[in-house]
Amino acid sequence: MAIVSAEKFVQAARDNGYAVGGFNTNNLEWTQAILRAAEAKQAPILIQTSMGAAKYMGGYKLCKALIENLVESMGITVPVAIHLDHGHYEDAKECIEVGYTSLMFDGSHLPIEENLKLTKEIVELAHAKGISVEAEVGTIGGEEDGIVGKGELAPVEDAKAMVETGIDFLAAGIGNIHGPYPANWDGLDLDHLKKLTDAVPGFPIVLHGGSGIPDDQIQAAIKLGVAKVNVNTESQIAFSNATREFARNYDANEAEYDGKKLFDPRKFLAPGIKAVQGAVEERIDVFGSANKA
Ligand code: 13P
């Protein structure tokens, strides 16, 4: 069975100077695309659902079953963790119940003492079932699932205290933003990242907002201790661009396309799947996790 918790392969990435991808999924087609990419590249991965994506797809139970069944039916051999992205406390508990193998409890919007306390509780519950845990200090700019972060740099003392809760990997704000980066973005604060990793030597750091960060900055962050990079927006753009392009062609060539039965949604969505697979494969190459399964 290729489905595993993530702490071992994330730590292996940290120890050996590469990063694994935490790729968000939003539907059946993306899940297939991400799994195909991981298998083609022989890369360990986390497939993650935000709370909103899980709701859209029909709930955590369905997401877990979908990923699990696809891993089996597609003959996936690389390690795959089923991960909750930016979970609230109750959602984290639900994912523990349902059988996700990894989760992020995001208490970054709470006062640090509260964040630490709740993270500790989640770590206890999750580790009792062998589930890996990510937590966050500082905030990541932009908006995701209604959680709006101003993008505060993670205080070093908070990072140290959070690692002491027993978590397996730590998301830390270093100037990163969810969604597209504005033209006047300052770039990642690599000096601050170095201060953080010096304070928690050897501990895996998670970089959120991976879409649109220039490759050289991602690779510099990996050198300093980033071992998991989250990617969502790039897949969204790849999927919607490919399916929009297909729809434009369809409209222009309707009679011919109808003759080929290209109104079948399976055919309509195929270019989107291929585009997401390509985008994920490119990222795996940048992260250096190809052939690390
Ligand atoms: P992007 O959408 O910017 O790639 O960020 C994804 C992410 O960090 C999910 O937690």
Describe the structure in your own words.
This protein has 293 residues and is α/β, with parallel strands linked by helices. The chain has a single domain, classed as Aldolase class I (TIM Barrel). It has 12 helices and 10 strands. The chain has helices at 7-16, 28-41, 51-57, 60-73, 89-98, 112-128, 156-163, 190-199, 215-224, 233-252, 254-259, 265-287; strands at 20-24, 45-50, 80-87, 102-105, 132-137, 142-144, 147-149, 169-172, 205-207, 226-231. The protein has an 8-stranded parallel β-barrel, surrounded by 10 helices. The chain has a two-stranded antiparallel ribbon with strand order 6-7. Strand 4 (102-105), helix 6 and strand 5 form a beta-alpha-beta unit. Helix 10 runs antiparallel to helix 12 (265-287). The radius of gyration is 19 Å and the shape is globular. The two termini are 13 Å apart. It binds 1,3-dihydroxyacetonephosphate. The site of 1,3-dihydroxyacetonephosphate has 14 residues, from strand 3, strand 10 and helix 10.
